[in-house]
Specification:
Radius of gyration: 18 Å
Number of helices: 9
Number of strands: 8
Distance between the termini: 44 Å
Bound molecules: NADPH dihydro-nicotinamide-adenine-dinucleotide phosphate
Strand order of the largest sheet: 3-2-1-4-5-6-7-8
Structural class: alpha/beta
Order of helices and strands: EHEHEHEHEHHHEHHEE
Shape: globular
Helix content: 40-55%
Length: 286
């Protein structure tokens, strides 16, 4: 099986992830893995895709579980020896009506959306082959301007996030500091916004920039990572309030997953759902 090109989508069983699966099954020259944390839901989605004439494969993958990440990584390594496309789509968002404390929401949201994505990337990146593409689903909520708690602390935080020399460790420290402040009930004073989801998505957007810097210094040729806001989409996450279809939401993340070899840009960029690059530090937001 070595030599086959491999693409992987996280949280592929429903919503935008399922839309991305359809795009990749139609357009990717190789095997597309639908992964899901729940085997039953994942296999059901694979059956739905087969009815559409596609031939996806399935593997269990919970980005919030180190053992699951490790098993999946070993499986890909031992079966195919490498990976060509990774779409980081899986994420959670609390509903407005959620009754959990802000501190608890912060801990869980940052752990899954930021640290889960980070852990999967760290595990799979050694398997990336030359010309690999990584596409991370961010959000309009993941624009740097959304770090907008009390001033001047918010500006100081934005400056840290925007630093071109920010490291993964420093970024993870910032995420942990937010969770700590959220638990103490002092996040606003420390400059943080009142949305745990915003902080998690700013985190993955900042991570994208750091990862591209590492790719640029990597001996493997032409590794590219970008992130995208998929638009406001009709999914369970939005309680079906978004106007866009999952197919429309899949456009930008799939475009980034399928960027042709040796492109000059976008690299380490933040894209809007109509595929235009948006300046993550200065804006403006479209
Ligand atoms: P959904 O809630 O419909 O789907 C989320 C997917 O992620 C599900 O497959 C879910 O699995 C999976 N998931 C959650 N936690 C984990 C985990 N620990 N491990 C593996 N998979 C997990 O959301 P959307 O389709 O709307 O969202 C997809 C992406 O788009 C997310 O990153 C979201 O933040 C982003 N986004 C969405 C917008 C929108 O308007 N919908 C706007 C901006 C960004 P399960 O079915 O088991 O719960």
């Amino acid at each position: 099986m070595a030599g086959k090109r491999i693409a992987v989508v996280t949280g592929g069983n429903k919503g935008i992830g399922y839309g991305i699966m359809k795009e990749l099954c139609a357009k990717f020259d190789g095997i597309v893995y639908l992964t899901a944390r729940d085997e039953g839901r994942g296999l059901a989605a694979v059956e739905d895709l087969k009815k559409l004439g596609f031939a996806p494969r399935f593997h269990q993958l919970d980005i919030d579980n180190a053992d699951s990440i490790s098993k999946f990584t070993s499986y890909i390594k031992n079966t195919y020896g490498g990976l060509d496309v990774l779409v980081n789509n899986a994420a959670i968002a609390y509903k407005m009506a959620a009754t959990e404390s802000f501190g608890e929401q912060a801990e869980n949201t940052i752990r899954v959306n930021y640290f889960g994505t980070l852990a999967l990337c760290r595990s799979l990146f050694p398997l990336l082959r030359p010309h690999a593409r990584v596409s991370t689903v961010s959000s309009s909520a993941g624009h740097l301007s959304r770090i907008n708690g009390n001033e001047p602390q918010a500006s100081a935080l934005r400056e840290k996030f925007a630093s071109p020399s920010l490291t993964e460790e420093e970024l993870s420290d910032l995420m942990n500091q937010f969770v700590e402040k959220a638990k103490e009930g002092k996040w606003k004073e420390a400059g943080w916004p009142s949305s745990t989801y915003v902080v998690s998505k700013v985190g993955v957007s900042a991570l994208t920039r750091i990862q591209q810097r590492a790719f640029d210094a990597d001996p493997r040729e032409d590794l590219v990572v970008n992130c995208a806001h998929p638009g406001y989409v009709d999914t369970d996450m939005t309680s079906h309030k978004g106007p866009l279809t999952i197919e429309q939401g899949a456009v930008a993340p799939s475009y980034l997953a399928l960027l042709p070899p040796n492109i000059k840009e976008p690299k380490g960029a933040y894209l809007w759902y109509e595929k235009q690059v948006v300046d993550w530090v200065k804006g403006p937001m479209p």
